[in-house]
Amino acid sequence: MSQIRRKLTVRPRTKLNHIPVWKGSLEGYTTNFLKTNYWRVESSMTYEDAESEAFLVFCKLTAKYSVEEPKHFMALYKTALYNRFNDLANEDSILRNLHSLDLEDSDEHSHHEVAGDLDNHGSVLVSISQAPNEVMQVLRLLLIAPIEILELARNAWKGNGHNVEDGNNFINEALGREKGTDSIGLVRAYFK
């Protein structure tokens, strides 16, 4: 029996690192990927830029990783490409939201509302957007101020029997204006 046993020799497997090539399956996968996912980033980059981003992902992966089989590199590339375009799509969404907020805040942008609608505040919005700087400062103070400041203004107003002079003094102090300025009168006169 011992003679039947042969000595098994185990040859070590030689590691052959796969060297990925862009042309071929990776380029084809990228084209198909961009056909279905380019819409997510099209407002911030051209199609050629998206292709370049995919190629940069490929270059970074080939520089950083060495894999033994092509299927492992393809799986790595798919994951990295998906993650990169997910990040780009999130950045694109943030930029679009910021851009829409900038448009709402700009003086050149007018608010379009339906004429005849019961909730139409178009004329008020136009009046506010064209208001002089002194009126806008008072409106911003009253509309954007923290609740604590509004409470102080309300208490000053109510405490003296709705005295306009005390209300003016409070607003002037908050805005850094001279004490005798009729800030409330400016706002009333403008909106009459």
3D structure, described in words:
This protein folds into two domains: 25-105, no CATH class; 124-190, no CATH class. 62% of the residues lie in helices and 0% in strands. The longest helix is centred in the middle third of the chain and has 36 residues, at 70-105. It starts with 24 loop residues before the first helix and ends with a helix. Helix 2 (47-64) packs across helix 3 and helix 5 (133-144) crosses helix 8. It is mostly helical and 192 residues long. The chain has helices at 25-37, 47-64, 70-105, 122-129, 133-144, 147-159, 164-175, 183-190. The protein is rod-shaped and about 105 Å long.
Topology overview:
Layout: H1 25-37, H2 47-64, H3 70-105, H4 122-129, H5 133-144, H6 147-159, H7 164-175, H8 183-190
Helix pairs in contact: 1-3, 2-3, 5-8
Summarize the biggest pleated sheet.
Answer: none
The SS-based structural class is mainly alpha
Order of helices and strands: HHHHHHHH
SS field, number of helical segments: 8
Q: Total domains, how many?
A: 2
Compute the separation of the termini in Å.
115 Å
Helix content range of the residues, please? 55-70%
Radius of gyration: 34 Å
| Strand element count | 0
Molecular shape: rod-shaped
Which keywords apply here?
single chain; 192 residues; mainly alpha; rod-shaped
Quick recap:
The protein is an all-alpha fold.
